[in-house]
Amino acid sequence: MPDEHKEDSQEINHYEFSGIEERHGKIPKWLGFVYVVMLIWMVYYLVRFWTDKG
Fold first, then answer.
1. The predicted structure's pLDDT at residue 1
2. pLDDT tens digit string along 1-14?
3. pTM, two decimal places
4. Domain that holds residue 53
5. CA 17 → CA 5, 14, 22, 23, distances in Å?
């Protein structure tokens, strides 16, 4: 049973016209960290520079 699940998760879809291959995968931890940092930076920037200071 675990082998069947492993094969399903490694299934590769191939798009003939563009030559792109697609498979399911995990997001690397460093990339998740970058997303979180960018989200925090976006909130800070919006609050700091786009709020009405009047």
1. 43
2. 455 555 555 788 88
3. 0.55
4. 25-54
5. 29, 9, 13, 17
Token pair for 5? 């699940």
Dihedral, 21, 16, 13, 33 alpha carbons, nearest 10 = 30
In a domain, 51, yes or no: yes
| DSSP characters over 1-54 | -HHHHHHHHT--EEETTTTEEE---PPPHHHHHHHHHHHHHHHHHHHHHHS---
Give the total number of structural domains in the chain. Answer: 1
In a domain, 47, yes or no: yes
What is the pLDDT at residue 23?
84
Give a yes or no: residue 42 inside a domain.
yes
31 part of a folded domain = yes
Please write the tens of the pLDDT for every residue from 11-38: 888 898 898 988 888 889 999 999 999 9
